[in-house]
Structure formats: structure tokens, C-alpha cells
Amino acid sequence: MKVLLVCGSFPPMRCGVGDYTSMLADALGRKAGVDVAVLTSKGAAPPRPDVPYRLLALEEGWRFPDLPDTVRAVREWSPDVVHFQYPAKGYGPLQWVLPSLFRAMGYPVYLTLHEYFGERDKGTRLSAALNLPNIVAARGIVVTREDYASLIPPSYARVMRRRQVKHIPIGANVHTRVVDEAERKAVRNRFAPSPSSLVSYFGFVSPNKGVDDIFRIADPERHHIVLIAELDPADPLHARILSLADTPPWKGRVSVTGFLPADEVARILACSDSVLLPFRNGSSLGNGTLHAALSQGTFTLSTSLTRRGYDTAWNAYFAAPGDIRDLSDALLRYSGRRVPRPSDFVDREWDRIAEDHERFYRRTG
After folding, report:
1. Fewer CB atoms < 10 Å away: N or C end of the chain?
2. Which phi and psi (to 5°) does residue 181 adopt?
3. Which residues pair with residue 303 across a beta bridge?
4. What does the pLDDT look like over 182-213, one tens digit per residue?
5. Distance of CA 175 to the CA centre of its chain
């Protein structure tokens, strides 16, 4: 089976869906009898020279003049499956026509919907409207959240009911990092003077992530905050967070790392006393940042619309979105707890994801 994954972004481009596509390509490529290629934007590069897939990095903005080269490359590789990842950074106008075009050329087309289209976001509604032809063109659709039907407009739900839909949860986009006490102490001392507890956040910073709430949840007398994120002073929300970090009582108790390679992200998360993800819309197993934290075995504190309290297996606590008091109490109660994770924890997770994809292709092909 020859599988072509299509995504507008791919490492080293900074996009969660691009990271997901990289991990999926790697896991599918490790399977016997599966050949994998990735159609993506120029500027992409495999993270290692020995990856089990090839790149067809031909797109320069996904514009219509790029169409002949794109069609030629896909025909030459002749895939059995063409699988698009939506949404992703880097895409341009071609993303709206390629699924229908490839279907007309005789290729089985699949989509993964990583995000869903809420009524409150005008830009997202536009993307949703433009994406309807792609949903119609798809033979099969992968959804990353089990509750996807409650998150999409009714018109889309009606169309998707006539398609093969498979729920496949995502995995972590960073690998498990096994650290000893000496390394943990070195990383903690790099950021926080003893005896401060190291509280980390990892991911993009937008209003629904609740990053500014971290300054209300944590205690400057007990905690040192590490924001593994890029903050742009020109962005009003980012500027507010930078101001909070540079103003008493938090001045000198916050570190902003900027963008870091995946291995360094895993190292900091593994060495932290807790990972705090106070998402305002609740987290889910469709969230890559949550998976990244859980895969390190570090205590993870987040929010959920459905889960409440401490989960022993995950070493995670879930509060209602916006419940600052519950989040603060849980941070004090559980910070520092760890559960052991084997070094191949994430690889095994992605092997299961790849197996689910292959079965879905074969069942619907």
C-alpha cells in the first residue's frame, strides 16, 4: 500500500498539524508493506536522514500555477491512498480543489479533521464553508475527537453521515524523555532557584489557551513559571502576558523560552514538577499539547468539559474551565507526582494510530 499524506506544513515549520503528520508518516512508514510519501510545502525537511518516508515538497504557497507540478509528482508516485490533513498552516487556494481533482483522477481520498468549526469564529466559518467540497470528495474521514458531531454545523453532520467516519485519537508530538534526578535537578536549577516548584506551559498562545490564567492559578511564593512558547510583543495578548511576567509579584519568577526543538521541549516537561494547561474551552484527547505532557509522566493539570478530579493512570487532574480555585488547589495538592513512562511510550502510541489508519484504508478501499 502506497500512502500519500498531504499537509500544508511539515517540520521544521511551526504547526501542530504538521508535527502530527510527521509522526504519522514515521509510524506508517515503519509498517511492513506500507510506503509513505508526504506532499507539503517547500522548506520542509525530514527530522532525520533515515526517516521511512519521502517528501514531495513541491508547493510554493499552494497556488493554481503550482497545479501541473503537483499533479505530475502525484502521478509519478502513484499512491493507493491520498490523505489530506485539515486545517494546517502553509496551505493556499489549491487545498480547496485538490481533493476533488484527485478523486476525479481515480485516487481514493481521505481527510483528517483536526479542528472543528464553531459559530463564533468568522474566519473558521469561512474555512468550513470552503471545506465542504473536500468532505464531499472524501471516501473516508478521520476525526480526532470522539465528540466531533457536536462541534460541527448541522449541514456538515448530514454530509458526513453519508461518509465513512473513523475516530482515531492523536498522539503526542514529542517523544518521551526519560531523565534521572541529576538531569532533573540541572534543568530545574536552570530556571528556578530551589525550593521553587517548576510549573510549565507548552504550546501556542491564543485566548482560548488561558495562558494568562496561569498567573492567577500559580503562587509566586511557591512556583516558577516556564512558558515554552513564542510571545510577540506586537500581539495584545502576548504583550499582556509579557507584562505580567515582568511585573511584581511575578517579576523574576517567569521564564519564556521561545520556540524549542521537540527533544528540548520533552526534556523540560519531563523535569518540571507540573504542566499547567488551563484551556478555556476544555482539553480533550484530541489535543497534542495534552498528550505531550501526559507522555512524560509529569503531573498535568488541565480543564475539561466532561472530566473532573484526579486520574491516577494519567497522573492528571481536570477542573471545570475557568475554575481558578479548583486549579490552584489541585496544583498545590498534586504537583511533583510522577508516573514512570518507558522511552518507547510515544512510539507504541503512534504504532497503534498507524495500525488504525491502515485498517481504515483497507476496510474502506
Report:
1. C
2. -65, -35
3. 319
4. 998 899 888 887 788 999 999 889 898 999 99
5. 13
